[in-house]
């Protein structure tokens, strides 16, 4: 930009010299050169202000890419062509706080963290609970919800609690804490892994597995949809807190997301979203 001003200034001076050589008034020539230089400087100033405004708009706006697994109602699931659910509405609220547009990428659950790490997604929300192995790869935001792990079995099953799971074949979704818990309880060889909990519950219904370890909220959905065919047994296995995951190096976005979550909690908006999908009992 400065080179442009210099070039215009030199052009003006040369023009002035040329006019003087032809007998023009020197004062008028100098005035014309100064006017040209002033106009060029004003042009540079306007351009710099426009560039600065554009950079500021870019920092505040842009697209927030969310990675999720839309197979986990009521947290995230398909309704027609749309992906809806608790996490989706919370992510939308966060994006609005940041002045950004939300874009959702649906993928396998165990692909979410790699997508965030590689930069293909800015943030991951999919009822993701804290785990030390996960925390080694990504940063976790402030918690925005809590849930629990429960056991589902077929109606008529003799399994009544976690104590009865020994030697049984347990189903869980790949990459979830349900899978980790099942592995700890019955051993890797007795865990059947699925791409979604829908598939796990279908296997339970057809007798291919003995139980499913699953998050409490989607468990309620499956119990309602399959009333009289499956049931929940025993106490909750654990209580979990859910958070968003972000790339380790993206600390600035993490701070903004944490601030947005705090605001949404204090305003009661997160509670409103939760109650919409999981009515208080």
Report on this model:
This protein has 281 residues and is α/β, with parallel strands linked by helices. It has three domains: 2-60, no CATH class; 63-144 and 243-277, 3-Layer(aba) Sandwich (D-Maltodextrin-Binding Protein, domain 2); 147-239, D-Maltodextrin-Binding Protein, domain 2 (3-Layer(aba) Sandwich). It is built from ten helices and 13 strands. It has helices at 2-21, 26-60, 86-97, 112-118, 132-135, 177-186, 197-205, 216-225, 251-267, 269-277, and strands at 63-68, 71-72, 76-79, 82-84, 101-106, 123-124, 138-140, 145-154, 170-173, 191-194, 211-215, 230-242, 245-247. A five-stranded mixed sheet has the order 10-9-11-8-12, sandwiched between helices. Strands 5-1-6 form a three-stranded parallel sheet, with helices on both faces. Helix 1 packs antiparallel against helix 2 (26-60). It is globular and about 55 Å long. It starts with a helix and ends with a helix. Mean pLDDT is 84; it is low at 1-33, 36-42 and 50-59.
Total tally of structural domains: 3
- What is the end-to-end distance? 65 Å
Query: How would you name the CATH homologous superfamily of the largest domain?
Result: Periplasmic binding protein-like II
Structural class: alpha/beta
CATH level-two architecture of the largest domain: 3-Layer(aba) Sandwich
Q: How would a textbook summarize the main sheet? A: 5 strands, mixed
Helix content: 40-55%
Give the C-level CATH assignment of the largest domain: Alpha Beta
Shape category? globular
Kindly report the CATH topology of the largest domain: D-Maltodextrin-Binding Protein, domain 2
User: What ranges have pLDDT less than 50 throughout 5 or more consecutive residues?
Assistant: 1-33, 36-42, 50-59
Strand content: 15-25%
Mean pLDDT: 84
Order of helices and strands: HHEEEEHEHEHEEEHEHEHEEHH
Sheet with the most strands: spatial strand order: 10-9-11-8-12
The count of DSSP E runs of length 2 or more, i.e. the number of strands, is 13
Indicate the radius of gyration in whole angstroms.
30 Å
Task: Give the helix tally.
Answer: 10
């Amino acid at each position: 930009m400065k080179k442009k001003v210099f070039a215009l200034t030199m052009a003006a001076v040369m023009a002035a010299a040329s006019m003087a050589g032809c007998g023009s008034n020197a004062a008028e020539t100098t005035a014309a050169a100064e006017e040209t230089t002033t106009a060029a400087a004003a042009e540079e100033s306007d351009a710099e202000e426009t560039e600065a405004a554009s950079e500021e708009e870019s920092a505040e706006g842009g697209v927030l890419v969310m990675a999720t697994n839309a197979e986990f109602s009521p947290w995230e699931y398909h309704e027609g062509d749309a992906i809806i659910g608790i996490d989706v509405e919370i992510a939308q609220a966060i994006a609005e706080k940041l002045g950004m547009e939300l874009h959702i990428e649906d993928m396998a659950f165990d692909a979410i963290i790699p997508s965030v790490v590689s930069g293909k997604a800015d943030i991951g929300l999919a009822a993701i609970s804290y785990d030390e192995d996960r925390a080694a790869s990504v940063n976790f935001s402030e918690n925005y919800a809590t849930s629990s792990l429960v056991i589902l079995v077929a109606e008529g099953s003799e399994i009544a609690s976690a104590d009865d799971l020994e030697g049984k074949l347990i189903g869980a979704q790949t990459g979830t804490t349900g899978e980790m818990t099942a592995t700890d309880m019955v051993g890797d060889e007795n865990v059947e892994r699925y791409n979604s909990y829908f598939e796990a519950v279908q296997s339970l219904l057809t007798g291919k597995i003995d139980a499913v370890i699953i998050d409490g909220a989607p468990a309620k959905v499956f119990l309602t949809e399959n009333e009289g065919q499956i049931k929940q047994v025993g106490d909750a296995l654990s209580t979990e807190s859910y958070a968003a995951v972000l790339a380790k190096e993206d600390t600035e976005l993490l701070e903004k997301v944490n601030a947005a979550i705090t605001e949404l909690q204090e305003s009661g908006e997160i509670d409103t979203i939760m109650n919409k999908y999981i009515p208080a009992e």
